[in-house]
Write a structure and sequence with these properties.
Transfers the 4'-phosphopantetheine moiety from coenzyme A to a Ser of acyl-carrier-protein. The chain is an alpha+beta fold and 117 residues long. It contains four helices and five strands.
Length: 117
């Protein structure tokens, strides 16, 4: 059963300007393993985290550091949750999170589907 869906789109040029103006955004928004990625990959991961929050319905008690976007051995994206993000998912009956991301034509986009029993 679908427990939530979320989508987000990020303008790459705007995201890059924000990061240049506010260097503290990178360590605030991304885990250590995410930080070294190219700007278009960071924008897609930001969109993924926003889409997850939308799928959950709110971001109460969840920090950006608790939402980590990773890739499996085949390059498919997914989430690793930490801390209170795990509790928020369990509280809402979420047992799985599906993620797809893309970037092209100056934008990055992510779509999330949460499922549960």
């Amino acid at each position: 059963m679908i427990r939530g869906i979320g989508v987000d789109i990020v303008d790459l040029a705007r995201f890059e300007r924000q990061v240049e103006r506010t260097p503290g955004l990178i360590p605030r928004l991304f885990t250590e393993s995410e930080r070294g990625l190219p700007i278009h990959s960071l924008a897609a991961r930001f969109a993924a985290k926003e889409a997850l929050v939308k799928a959950l319905g709110d971001s109460a008690a969840i920090t950006w550091q608790e939402l980590e976007v990773v890739a499996d051995d085949h390059g498919n994206p997914g989430f690793v949750m930490h801390g209170s993000a795990l509790a928020a998912l369990a509280e809402r009956g979420v047992t799985g999170a599906h993620l797809t991301m893309t970037h092209d034509a100056g934008v990055a986009c992510a779509f999330v589907v949460l499922e549960g029993p």
